[in-house]
Amino acid sequence: MTLQTETLVGTSSARKAWRVETRTRLSGLFSLFAIALIVILCAAPFLVSRGVVQDLFFILTMLALAQSWNLLAGYAGLISVGQQLFVGCGAYALVGFVTLLGLDPIFAIPLAGLFAMLVALPTAFFAFRLYGPYFAIGTWVIAEVGRLLFAQWKALGGGTGTSLPRDATREMFGVSFLEDWFGMRTAAAADAVAFWLALIVLVLTIWFIYRLLRSKQGLGLAAVRDNETAARALGVDAQKLKLVIYLSTAFITGVVGALIYLQKARISPDAAFSLTDWTAYVIFIVVIGGIGTIEGPILGVIIFFLMQNALSSYGSWYLLLLGALAIVTMLLRRAGSGA
Amino acid sequence: MNWLDSILQGILLGGLYALFAAGLSLVFGIMRLVNLAHGDLIVFAAFLILMLVSTLGLNPFVAALIAGPLMFAVGYLLQYHLLNRTLGKDILPPLLVTFGLSIVIQNGLLEAFTADSQRIPAGALEQASISLGGINAGVMPLLTFASAILVIVGLNQMIYKTALGRAFRATSDDVVTAGLMGIRPNQIFAIATGLAMVIVTIAALYLGTRANFDPTAGPARLIYAFEAVIIGGLGSLWGTLAGGIILGVAQTVGAAINPEWQILSGHIAFLLVLLFRPRGLFPRAVD
């Protein structure tokens, strides 16, 4: 997905010698299409029913989670199965800021992202000591530690969890405006605000990833992915790059976690730190759509949403099918790439 | 007295964790594969033993003797037909495929056996205990610990004294050269995973007879196994036993202070080791 033109032109002596293009005519067309889609989505709360807005909210938040996991695993090679830590921390930070400090949820959301990033610092300190596959399980252990610690926090309900106060979402910024001007019911207005926030977060996330990958750091990242030793020999600070990516995805994931629980309004440690909901589904979305591309997760989230609507009533058969599909996709991808 | 008792129970629990970990360690050592479905395979084996016990009315130990070869076949086929295809320089495919496998096994077990927690009945052995200088130790935990030691001795003998072990080590060091010397790496990998599944069956026997388990119990077993391996240091089976013991003692002592802290204190012990000895307490392997 491309939203911006970018050309690098060589310095004086070699002005005509080389030219880097990061977009084609097709990607230009696609970016126009994307902008049109975003405009249509902005108007969605006025056009479609509340149920559809909630479905769209689900798609947007899952896509934002998938994009950030894709950045982490597909570009930085950091395969984490502990992203539920940041969803949970973001969600609990939101509930904490809103119920204990009485902040407006809109302001609590970026703070929740910062909190998740703060948690990511010690997490990275521990997890980065582990090599490749062990990093994956290491992040999972730390997510478990997070879940167990939040279950001890009695002010927020301990192991059974708690609810956001009803007034918090009613009095949220923009809700009364929607009620007065468009005659929306309070609950619908709160959903609409959450939806727009999700749209903003998603667009910013994709824009951030797009810009990052086409920056000097992004080039370094690609070099590290292709050959870490060679990249380091050329002066790319691989560890620092990975840390920056890890912290930024923690921020994004925390913000999305806060948003999801703003809409759900009910939190418990088991749900907020759920491996299935916030990591297994996300990995499925990225793998099925195509890891290491920006458009992959977009395709993946659509497939995921359709499958969930069609099959979720089958319970564990549905999850079994998801797992099997992920395995087959991964095997076919390897066969396709000739490895 | 209470403390001594907690520590003894912890040490014996460590035997169980070492059994969880030994298979994981073997597979990683030979093919650098971390099987995220390891815990679910333990639970799968526990259900297999339970089925043999409940339908044929067998003694659990006899059932494990039958389940062992079956699990070897499962491991062999799984590695030969599925996991071997994922091996390579890229660490992503094996991780994602085993993660998918973990979800498939968990939900398959849920469909087959429902979410009820189960237990393998072991008759009088369940409650039997021996007095050790004033502290009572259960016979089952003692058997678990003894089995862990036997498994580790056996594995070490196999790896360092037999032709198969030589093939394992050669393949682990250099797949291509081992292939030139007439070893078929794919088959070696399949045998290694098959053996790991035999150890998994032993672990499952003790898991199922000493505590309740249900289809979602796998991931936690994987985490304990992983922690035991990392605490002990990669490449050392005795280190893994030590890691299991440290984890077990941390958990039982934590539980003695506050029952809610059992799991958490195990994780904290793991993080402390990672903080002060990032390569584990007794590292041998370089990676």
Description of the molecule:
The complex is a heterodimer of chains A (about 350) and B (about 290). Chain A is an all-alpha fold. Chain A has a domain at about 50-275. In chain A, about 75% of the residues lie in helices and about 5% in strands. Chain A has 15 helices and 4 strands. In chain A, the strands form 2 sheets. In chain A, strands 1-2 form a two-stranded antiparallel sheet. In chain A, helix 2 runs antiparallel to helix 11, helix 2 (about 50-75) crosses helix 13 and helix 3 packs across helix 11. Chain A is globular and about 60 Å long. Chain B is mainly alpha-helical. Chain B has a single domain (about 1-110, about 135-275), classed as ABC transporter involved in vitamin B12 uptake, BtuC (Orthogonal Bundle), CATH 1.10.3470. Chain B has helices at about 1-30, 40-55, 60-80, 90-115, 140-160, 165-175, 175-180, 185-210, 220-230, 235-255, 260-275, and strands spanning about 130, 135-140. Chain B has a two-stranded antiparallel sheet. In chain B, a hairpin with a 2-residue loop joins strand 1 (about 130) and strand 2 (about 135-140). In chain B, helix 1 crosses helix 9 and helix 9 packs across helix 10. The longest helix of chain B is centred in the first third of the chain and has 30 residues, at about 1-30. Chain B starts with a helix and ends in an 11-residue tail after the last helix. The model of chain B has no long low-confidence stretch (mean pLDDT about 90). At the A-B interface, helix 5, helix 13 and helix 15 of A face helix 4, helix 9 and helix 11 of B.
- State the helix count of chain A: 15
- Percent helix of chain B, as a range, is over 70%
Low-confidence segments of chain A: 1-11
* Number of distinct beta strands of chain A: 4
Helix-strand layout with pairing:
The complex is a heterodimer of chains A (339) and B (287).
Chain A: E1 7-9, E2 19-21, H1 25-47, H2 50-75, H3 84-101, H4 105-127, H5 132-150, E3 162-163, H6 166-170, H7 175-182, H8 186-213, H9 216-226, H10 228-233, H11 238-264, E4 266-267, H12 269-272, H13 275-289, H14 295-311, H15 316-336
Antiparallel strand pairs in A: 1-2, 3-4
Helix pairs in contact in A: 1-8, 2-8, 2-11, 2-13, 2-14, 3-4, 3-5, 3-11, 4-11, 7-8, 8-11, 13-14
Chain B: H1 2-31, H2 38-56, H3 60-82, H4 92-113, E1 129-132, E2 135-138, H5 139-161, H6 163-173, H7 175-180, H8 185-210, H9 218-232, H10 237-257, H11 262-276
Antiparallel strand pairs in B: 1-2
Helix pairs in contact in B: 1-5, 1-8, 1-9, 1-10, 2-3, 2-4, 2-8, 2-9, 3-8, 5-6, 5-8, 6-8, 9-10, 9-11, 10-11
